[in-house]
Amino acid sequence: MNMGWNASLATGINAIDSEHFDFLRRMNALLNNRDGCDSVASALHMLTFLEHHVLHHFVEEEEQMVLHDYPAMLVHRDEHVRLVDSVLNARCDLELHNNRLEVIILSNRLLASGLLEHLNTLDRSFAQFLRPAPFQSQWDCV
Ligand SMILES: [Fe+2]
């Protein structure tokens, strides 16, 4: 599933939006065989990026949800917990498979699809809560 940036994803919070934009670019490259697919090292580097995304970016989002008293925060946070578990379990599974390239790539693609789905649904809902009116972000022109 490829997914492009559009204004409905913009929260208006630059740190969140810039990370979502970068995340989309990297996930589309991964799903189109343009990144993280040519060596064990690059595939593990992509997995490390996914780990960083779920462990750090999710915390930033949740801080903003608390700050803005977001009513759907608990549902959104539960989904974050589930996604963090998926990524951390993937790292453990890969060690059981001796970090075989095809296993890492398949795992990364499954994780990317789940994270893109999250961005397209719950993160979009949070963005629309923060910015109910149409909003032109700086990322729309890239
Ligand atoms: Fe989220």
The count of β-strands is: 0
What coarse outline follows from CA principal-axis ratios? globular
Q: Poorly predicted ranges (pLDDT <50, ≥5 residues)?
A: none
Radius of gyration: 15 Å
**Helix segment tally:** 4
Task: Specify the structural class.
Answer: mainly alpha
Per DSSP, what share of the residues sits in E-state strands of 2 or more residues?
A: under 5%
* SSE succession: HHHH
User: What small ligands are held by the chains?
Assistant: fe (ii) ion
Written overview of the protein:
The protein has 142 residues and is an all-alpha fold. The chain has a domain at 59-128. The protein contains 4 helices and no strands. Helix 1 (14-31) packs antiparallel against helix 4 and helix 2 (40-67) runs parallel beside helix 4 (101-130). It is globular. It starts with 13 loop residues before the first helix and ends in a 12-residue tail after the last helix. The model has no long low-confidence stretch (mean pLDDT 87). Fe (ii) ion binds at residues 58, 61, 76, 80, 118, 122-123.
